[in-house]
Design a protein that fits this description.
Elements lengths: L1 E3 L2 E3 L6 H8 L7 E4 L5 E5 L2 E14 L5 E13 L2 E15 L5 E6 L1 E3 L6 E8 L5 E12 L4 E14 L6 E7 L4 E8 L5 E7 L3 E3 L2 E3 L6 E7 L5 E7 L6 E8 L5 E7 L2 E4 L2 E4 L6 E7 L6 E5 L9 E4 L5 E7 L3 E3 L2 E3 L6 E7 L5 E6 L7 E7 L5 E6 L11
Antiparallel strand pairs: 1-2, 3-4, 5-6, 6-7, 7-8, 9-11, 10-11, 11-12, 12-13, 14-15, 15-18, 16-17, 18-19, 20-21, 21-24, 22-23, 24-25, 26-27, 27-30, 28-29, 30-31, 32-33
């Protein structure tokens, strides 16, 4: 049982013990809306009496609607609609502004080797349409279009926000790949950030990895046509692009982590603080971009990035030792602290700050509203084992 303000919800899935043992977490979700003053507007969940589910991403519509995506097995009821899977499939569900589920759709994956699918990233476009990305293998029905993948592959799909009907779906990137983030730009372009340990192909475009694990950026137009496929890699190192955002001029900002020396158009970064440093890249529409980094003695990666109306850039991560960026250095007060950093519009570091408690905290997501209020999703367990720290 969990209580959020005046709302209490009770778990219904019979599989919690198995999920906790095998996956290290419970297998039932809650979805909530919080006001600007921190009060719970509403909390929703689904009936998991005959199944279980995981949520991997959440999107918000302009009118206050919420969209969730993830994976599930068995039968899960969203409002009056029930979806069913035998082996584990991706799902997509939408609420109205008051937390009532409007519809839910699932991917139907079939095959002979326990083939599965998942929805790993969700974006809601300005017109209300929904873009998702994830992985699948075997024969997967995305809602009228069936794709086949002999090896685990990635997909990007767009759905009608009103009824959840499929508009288009494309696939590629088979092999050892995964989804890291998804962004829908102001001009309708869609950017997928992924990780690959082998060459990836989408349509006629190929990116051949150069490191142990590279990150790639796939750009699609609003109709799903492939525009560009570029990659970031360092020989024998790991590069992760974990967050994407965009300013009002169309400039793109990427955050993540890297080892070695990472290079781009007009900039070069070297991981000098520890094993892997965190980076922020500004990819300008004019071609005059820049990049900066920071780090500690551990493996670091910025997990979130947000832009204020003043032009200030905010990044977030989690640290367990002293972290340096520019001329600023901060140390955690406890075992593990949340770190926020502020930069000017040209990439100059202005400040660093930490959450400052004696326990363990982890920053999971960063966003900003129209009033320049920063919103940080935080996990603060009483004790977080070292093996769970990335």
């Amino acid at each position: 049982m969990a209580t959020f303000g005046q709302t209490t919800i009770n778990p219904t899935s019979p599989y919690h013990a198995s999920c906790a043992q095998l996956a290290g977490r419970y297998c039932e979700f809650f979805l909530g809306s919080v006001s600007d003053t921190g009060d719970w507007d509403w909390v929703a969940t689904a009936d998991h009496s005959n199944g279980y589910s995981f949520v991997y991403d959440v999107g918000a519509g302009m009118g206050g609607e919420a969209v969730i995506g993830g994976s599930f097995s068995g039968s899960v009821q969203f409002g009056i609609q029930t979806i069913t899977s035998q082996a584990g499939d991706g799902y997509l569900a939408k609420t109205d502004p008051f937390g009532n589920f409007m519809w839910a759709h699932s991917h139907a994956t079939t095959g002979t080797n326990n083939n599965t699918s998942s929805v790993d990233a969700v974006e809601v476009e300005c017109n209300g349409d929904i873009v998702i990305a994830g992985s699948f293998d075997g024969n997967t029905d995305f809602g009228g279009t069936i794709l086949n993948a002999a090896l685990p592959s990635l997909y990007v799909a767009k759905y009608d926000g009103n009824n959840g009907q499929l508009i288009w779906v494309i696939s590629g990137g088979s092999g050892t790949t995964g989804v890291l983030d998804l962004h829908s730009s102001m001009n309708g372009q869609i950017i997928l950030a992924g990780i690959n340990q082998n060459a990836v192909t989408f349509g006629q475009q190929l990116y051949a990895n150069v490191g142990f694990a590279d990150s790639f950026l796939l750009e699609l137009d609003t109709n799903g046509a492939i525009v560009t496929l570029v990659g970031y890699g360092v020989p024998n190192e790991v590069v992760l692009i974990t967050g994407i955002t965009e300013d009002m001029n169309g400039n793109m900002y990427y955050v993540g982590g890297f080892g070695g020396t990472l290079q781009g158009q007009g900039w070069s970064l070297s991981a000098s603080q520890g094993n892997r440093d965190a980076f922020l890249i500004m990819d300008s529409v004019s071609g005059n971009g820049w990049a900066t980094s920071g780090g500690s003695s551990n493996n670091d990666s910025f997990s979130g990035v947000a832009l204020l109306s003043t032009g200030e850039i905010i990044v977030s991560t989690t640290i367990s030792s002293s972290f340096t960026a520019g001329s600023n250095t901060v140390s955690p007060t406890g075992n593990q602290d949340i770190l926020l950093g502020g930069l000017g519009s040209t990439g100059t570091w202005d400040w660093l700050d930490t959450s400052g408690s004696a326990g363990y905290e982890m920053g999971l997501a960063l966003s900003v509203n129209m009033s320049d209020m920063l919103l940080l999703l935080v996990d603060f367990p009483a004790l977080l084992p070292k093996e769970h720290i990335l």
